[in-house]
Amino acid sequence: MEELIKAAKKARLRAYAPYSDWQVGAALKSKEGKIYSGCNIENASYGLSMCAERVALFKAVSEGVTDFEALVLVSDREEPAAPCGACRQVLAEFALTLPVFLVNLQEKVIRTTVEELLPAVFWFKK
Ligand code: THU
């Protein structure tokens, strides 16, 4: 856990958030033990901005990794922030039961899961 928190904090420092000034870091641990980190990356066209969680997840998936053990999300807030709705849906696609640890800079930790965060997940069935 310490390693994951450290990676998420490090990624957070790379956030590109000149519009919101809200920096977020994520670290996703694969079943094989590799850590994929991400930060939020904003854009002048606000809607094109990308959340830290999805950056981390897409890095992993694009490298062929789809089995995960845990996600740590770090932000600077008294009550550690939870993933946005879009990230919940995207995480659910790969890891519905994934443990998610919401952490602030003082390392207050709240444990939850993707399933708990998104109880009415949308599934596409052919
Ligand atoms: N943000 C994340 O990176 N993850 C979330 O789950 C919530 C929001 C980012 C997006 C944007 O750059 C900034 O936080 C403010 O919404």
Q: What's the helix and strand layout?
A:
Layout: H1 2-12, E1 24-30, E2 35-39, H2 52-62, E3 68-75, H3 85-94, E4 99-104, E5 109-113, H4 114-117
Parallel strand pairs: 3-4
Antiparallel strand pairs: 1-2, 1-3, 4-5
This protein binds tetrahydrodeoxyuridine.
Describe the structure.
The chain is 29% helix and 25% strand. It has four helices and five strands. The protein has helices at 2-12, 52-62, 85-94, 114-117, and strands at residues 24-30, 35-39, 68-75, 99-104, 109-113. Strands 2-1-3-4-5 form a five-stranded mixed sheet. It is globular and about 40 Å long. The N and C termini lie far apart (38 Å). 32% of the residues are buried.
Keywords:
alpha+beta; 5-stranded mixed sheet; 5 strands; binds tetrahydrodeoxyuridine
Tell me about the biggest sheet? 5 strands, mixed
**Strand order within the widest sheet?**
2-1-3-4-5
What is the molecular shape? Answer: globular
Rg over CA atoms, rounded to whole Å, is: 14 Å
Intertermini distance: 38 Å
Q: What is the residue-mean pLDDT, rounded to a whole number?
A: 96
User: What is the oligomer described by this structure?
Assistant: single chain
Helix content: 25-40%
- Report the strand count: 5
How many helical stretches?
A: 4
- What structural class do you assign from the helix and strand content? alpha+beta
Poorly predicted spans: none
Question: Order of helices and strands, N to C?
Answer: HEEHEHEEH
Strand content: 15-25%
Hetero groups in this structure are:
tetrahydrodeoxyuridine
